[in-house]
Fold this sequence. Notes:
Blueprint: H1 2-11, H2 26-54, H3 63-86, H4 88-94, H5 98-128, E1 130-131, H6 134-160, H7 175-205, E2 207-208
Antiparallel strand pairs: 1-2
Helix pairs in contact: 1-2, 2-3, 3-5, 3-6, 5-6, 6-7
Amino acid sequence: xxxxxxxxxxxxxxxxxxxxxxxxxxxxxxxxxxxxxxxxxxxxxxxxxxxxxxxxxxxxxxxxxxxxxxxxxxxxxxxxxxxxxxxxxxxxxxxxxxxxxxxxxxxxxxxxxxxxxxxxxxxxxxxxxxxxxxxxxxxxxxxxxxxxxxxxxxxxxxxxxxxxxxxxxxxxxxxxxxxxxxxxxxxxxxxxxxxxxxxxxxxxxxxxxxxxxxxxxxxxxxxxxxxxxxxxxxxxxxxxxxxxxxx
Length: 247
């Protein structure tokens, strides 16, 4: 919680890192560069928190966990490329290039999007009382993860090479990376469609979900799915810690 508050607070003071090439004074550029680097500290703390949460845990590589692990990996790449953007020497070169586009999408889509997909797959049986096809969910994850990186990683490469964003055309030397990115977008969209179709099929024709499909010990997995209006007919009995898992 404190790291989230720190990111939000410092985030108020980094806006000028979009303006390093606008003619602002050298002192102002240094100050905003340092403030941008400071955001990386609580962000790194969050990554270590997520990894430490899994330490000595019962890792079950089902769709929710696969999407969650992807989120951490993609968010990490987005954060590390953000350091490159925050450094004055490199930002002058990559300002308004496709490197910025790649960085932004690794953070916002790779982070927020894949975390959202993890939550969708985790809470689906609790919300609808039905189960989607686990195999097809895993296939959709593989397609999306591959497609995402094939789409956005070449943008980091061509950005370092100097390809500007917001241009309708590009120089011949950038042709192959752009073709690769385009193919990656098709793969990613195909994976998203695959995922949505699988979830819709699960909602319409899926088998009845067990009360506790993930073997969790938190109280929401001790009642029927979807939960009845009163949640618990009697006071629930708690015998183990909330972050422990059954074998």
